[in-house]
Amino acid sequence: MPSEIYTARRPPTKDYLAFDPSTDSLQEIPGITGITHALLLFAEREPDRCAVETARTREVNVEIPCKVIDQCLELGITPIFVSSELVFGGEQGMYEEHSTPTPILEYGRQKLFTEQYLLSRSKSGMVLRFPKTVGIHKGDRSLFVGWLERIAQRPELLRCAADQYFSTQFVDDVPAIVRLLMHKYRSGLFHLGDGQRHSRFGLLSQLCAQLHRLGHYVPKLEKISIRDVTVPEPRPFDVSMNASKLTSIIGVEPKRVEDLLLQLALEYRGSR
User: Fold this and answer.
1) Is residue 92 over pLDDT 60?
2) What are phi and psi of 130, to 5 degrees?
3) Under a CB-based contact definition with an 8 Å cutoff, are residues 242 and 92 in contact?
């Protein structure tokens, strides 16, 4: 039996089986009876879409995951649900797992509902709350790479919120973290990330400083408020999360965001 099965909502390849959680059942996946855990990654991750398309996104973020959770439990598979920092309202920051969620976004409310559903149905299930995921690979659609793509267009000015705070998680480290938690037979709620409180403007300033040091073009930066950004729902100010529980269990220190920014700047191929 396979030890790992990867599925995607697209035609099958040598690496992925075709599986549409909205219409298919886990029982139909070949080799599924040999699987012990299921990582639920499918979601509508755009908060603005959740705000304006509530019924459709609630189906994706709540109804379908809850259905798959039930299927996992029927098969004796431990479900692992991927949640978000946005279950918090941003009033205090550095939230811990026992902090009371008070989402102000529809996306956060949807994630919180599914979190609570899983934890109420399964003592062995896991909920992983992700902070801002960051990468260093071209086209990965992460925050830092997105900034680089904008800087490569040589704008004279970049505006950035100076009053928004969050923690970060290097996306390449996620598979190893999940495997460690599985192998240690852990269950319950975990905050991922570096456990730090980062300012959005501060991180962009660090990246620009590294680029400038290496002789690359950098634009002028202007501080704004997150409330100056026009969105369907106001964003929370501070959703940073304490990740000491996770670090103490897996015994691995998270990547330093400063090191990621330096690596990204060193590999940048923008205009000088």
Assistant:
1) yes
2) -90, 140
3) no
